[in-house]
Amino acid sequence: MSEQTLAPPATMPxxxxxxxxxxxxPVRIVLIGVAVLFIGVFLGFPLLVVFFEAxxxxxxxxxxxxxxxxxxxxxxxxxLVAALAVPxxxxxxxxxxWAIAKYDFRGKALLIxxxxxxxxxxxxxxxxxxVIMFGAQGYFGDWLKANNIQIIFAIPGIVLxxxxxxxxxxxxxxxxxxxxxxTQDEEAAISLGASGWQTFRRVTLPNVKWGLMYGVLLxxxxxxxxxxxxxxxxxxxxxxxxTMPLHIEILYNDYQWVAAFTVASLLALLALITLIVKTxxxxxxxxxxxxxxx
Length: 294
What we know:
By secondary structure, this protein is an all-alpha fold. It has helices at residues 25-54, 59-65, 69-102, 108-115, 117-120, 123-134, 141-146, 155-166, 168-181, 184-191, 196-225, 228-234, 244-253, 257-291. The chain is 74% helix and 0% strand.
């Protein structure tokens, strides 16, 4: 029987280990460049144009725009609507998140689906719903007219439409946070004799305070910038039912471009402030998760 000579195994090339999230420098440069270019073209440049057009006639003309009575009325109405819609959504968001995260009940999945409804329904459709319900020819129109109550083409309709399009924000921030925390802390507090209100105020609320502030911030930003639903129910009455986004549209359609961009710059400034506060809250929240509350 002849002997067979086994060939020595081929030498394997050394394998260089690389972290799954690491990329070679050219790939990183391309990805970062695409992201920065996209942000610059679709966000940074339009934002600069808004402020450039707003100050086109000088600083004096910029502030003269805010002396106009209709502009002041639009700013006041925007702040009023946000001041009414945000607390309503705050109460709903806390209640819904607490019920969904802390309890099991029939219809829980349906409630979660309904909370997400404004994300999938056009704001214009939301405004039309309120017109069908509370308009002069709506389901409750005769009763409202008989009792001298006006909802559509008035402040109540604007507030209702704003609440509809903004109510998911607080709840959607709190639900996953409360679910992740579980019920152990609340159960411990109750076992030690704390009441339901004491448990909420001293245990539940401190645990979700940063997520709550984050949700309120997003809700407020959307409330001040809402256009579609408010445009349907407002009636576009100057000085009465025009919010800042609607007033910007009217100024632009009247060829008052500088005034339109001036009011738009105020909304953009509020958005930038919201972004800065949002970033600070995210940093504070992530820092607290990593190091514990201070």
